[in-house]
Amino acid sequence: MMDELWREEEKKTLESIAKLTELGKVKWECVEYNPLCFMNEDKVDETSAYLCQMFTLTAEIGGMPYELEIAEYITVPDGKGDIALTLTRDVPDDFMKIDSILSSDVDEYENCEPSEIGKRYKNDPAMRLTEAIVPVVIESEAVQAMKDIPVRMISYGGSNYNISFLVRREDKVKALRSLSHYLFENK
Hints:
Elements: H1 2-22, E1 29-39, E2 50-61, E3 64-75, E4 81-89, E5 96-101, H2 106-110, H3 117-120, H4 125-137, H5 141-145, E6 151-156, E7 163-167, H6 172-185
Antiparallel strand pairs: 1-2, 2-3, 3-4, 4-5, 6-7
């Protein structure tokens, strides 16, 4: 019973912070970004290969410091995405740590097709925070060009001139045309 109450309180906290972030009332600063990387199949943990990118962000909410870690995963070859986050308030007398991952409800997640993840979890606080924060962190003309394309992952590379998008095969031509129009023809 206490576990259920605690999970409900964690969910409300994440929902509240997601809403404040979406409204622009919380400004997250990216303090660390680990660009897109490929992790090979892990035979010990029995996990398939996946693409991953991670962000560490900080903000002050209600006068208290918060740290948010976001990890986006896309399994290979099926393209199923997942988002894990950890929200920490490291205050001596008021410590809090919340872990959340889309796939925590294993039955619902496993029965969801990769193309349905965004729709099914659109109200999940982890999805909402990621959608509100990641485009701001990786803001560029290229990102603006892709605003109408269902992007699965964005990787901001080692320089200001390197960015990669992971899109579905059927969206490839639309993405290339949008990038070409926005970056070269619209000048």
